[in-house]
Specification:
Number of domains: 1
Order of helices and strands: HHHH
Oligomer: single chain
Structural class: mainly alpha
């Protein structure tokens, strides 16, 4: 069940593969928790859906911040992924998920963890490069532009 992006790309995070993968996982969680007993609708089901949504929400929220804050939000998304691993295990222990379903969930979560790790590393690398460039610039040697 692939998420189709809107045609308007006003929000940069909509271009991120990890964001779209997170939306796919939310859909997967909805589909795979529908058959849970009614008693779990307000408990385990709601928690699982909310936690899966938090992955995408943190990616979107962080994308509107500076790089350091974005990294923090991406790490929060990774925390939600770990929480989904626990929820997947609980669902298996309670007999709600088969081995195959557990493997599908884990495959999603491992892939998203790797994608987030790569994005975080990329942002940290560009932040370090920016810091080095800032250190090398001698602002005393720059003549201000006076419009002349």
């Amino acid at each position: 069940m692939e998420y189709e992006r809107p045609t308007s790309m006003f929000f940069r995070f909509e271009d991120l593969r990890i964001y779209n993968k997170a939306l796919d996982y939310v859909s997967w969680v909805y589909s795979n928790t529908q058959s849970f007993p009614d008693i779990e609708k307000q408990g385990l089901t709601a928690k699982f859906i909310a936690t899966a949504q938090n992955i995408a929400i943190n990616i979107a929220e962080g994308s509107g911040r500076n790089k350091i804050q974005f990294i923090i939000y991406l790490k929060l998304a990774k925390s939600s992924i770990r929480e989904c691993i626990v929820l997947t295990s609980i669902c298996q222990k309670l007999g709600f998920f088969s081995e195959e379903t557990v493997e599908e969930s884990r495959t999603f979560l491992v892939e998203m963890t790797k994608m987030l790790g790569a994005l975080i590393a990329s942002l940290q690398k560009s932040e370090r490069l920016h810091d080095r460039v800032e250190e090398e610039i001698d602002y005393n040697q720059i003549t201000p532009y006076n419009g002349i």
